[in-house]
Inverse folding.
């Protein structure tokens, strides 16, 4: 596909990628996994963390925004299922581009066909749209082309760069119930303001009676860098909050031992009790819009 001058092909951290540029900043998207590697708003530091120890393709990239689809972790799948599904380790291609001068640019990507993708997601059609302007947005759209209902779980697994993970706060979680993976998926409710205690792996979700009180909007407050990252989600009634802590990072081959300090994951998701029953012919869109305060 012919690309406008606002999009150029590049290499980024060893990956074939596309560089998007507007007067508001730049973004880099790897074709491996439709993986957002970088977003640098004009005059600011990168919003995302990318591991220096991330393995080469075809392995999954650690950092940025992996696309977990059509299942999150191994929820609802067999134990030997591919962690977080095939989308993040599949090559994608540009299917559409729209540019509005130097103010805003969008591109849509779809996965390239291969045997593994055909087997694991044969009845599903998926696309990812990324728009760079004053904000950065991603929309992951899934359509069920089959004859059976598909139970969809998914996430935009954002690794936000921070000054120190133990010194940031997350607003928008107060009063939400959650399942704590580090305590055997025990159920609890967020009472106090969120702060990291050694490690965290939780799925927060809307209470059954939340109604319009559930906003799907979260803010990562980083006093060390004097930055607030606002995450406004769409098509999601759950959010995954994760940091492995020091002990967890030491067990991860693709994260430096002290790398846990440098990021915090806040993931727009459909996970835990938030499962999308996608009936034949139905479509669902999971999205997030990011802005800086």
């Amino acid at each position: 596909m012919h690309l406008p001058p606002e999009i150029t092909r590049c290499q980024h951290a060893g990956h074939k990628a596309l560089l998007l540029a507007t007067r508001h900043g730049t973004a880099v998207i790897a074709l491996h996994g439709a993986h957002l590697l970088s977003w640098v708003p004009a005059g600011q530091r990168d919003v995302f963390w990318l591991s220096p120890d991330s393995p080469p393709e075809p392995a999954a990239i650690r950092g940025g925004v992996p696309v977990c689809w059509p299942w999150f972790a191994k929820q609802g799948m067999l134990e030997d299922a591919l962690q977080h599904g095939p989308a993040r380790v599949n090559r994608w291609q540009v299917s559409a581009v729209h540019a509005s001068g130097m103010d805003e640019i969008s591109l849509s990507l779809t996965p390239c066909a291969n045997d593994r993708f055909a087997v694991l997601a044969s009845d599903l059609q998926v696309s990812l749209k990324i728009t760079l302007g004053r904000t950065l947005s991603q929309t992951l759209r899934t359509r069920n082309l089959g004859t059976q209902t598909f139970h969809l779980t998914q996430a935009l697994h954002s690794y936000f760069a921070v000054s120190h993970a133990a010194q940031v706060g997350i607003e928008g979680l107060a009063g939400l119930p959650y399942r704590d993976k580090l305590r055997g998926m025990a159920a609890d409710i967020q009472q106090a303001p969120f702060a990291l205690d050694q490690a965290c792996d939780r799925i927060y979700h809307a209470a059954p009676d939340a109604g319009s009180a559930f906003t799907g909007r979260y803010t990562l407050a980083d006093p060390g860098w004097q930055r607030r990252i606002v995450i406004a989600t769409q098509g999601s009634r759950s959010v995954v909050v994760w940091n492995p802590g020091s002990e967890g990072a030491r067990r991860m081959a693709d994260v430096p031992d002290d790398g846990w300090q440098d990021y915090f994951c806040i993931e727009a998701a459909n996970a835990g009790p938030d499962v999308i029953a996608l009936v034949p012919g139905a479509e669902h869109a999971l999205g997030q819009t990011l802005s800086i305060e």
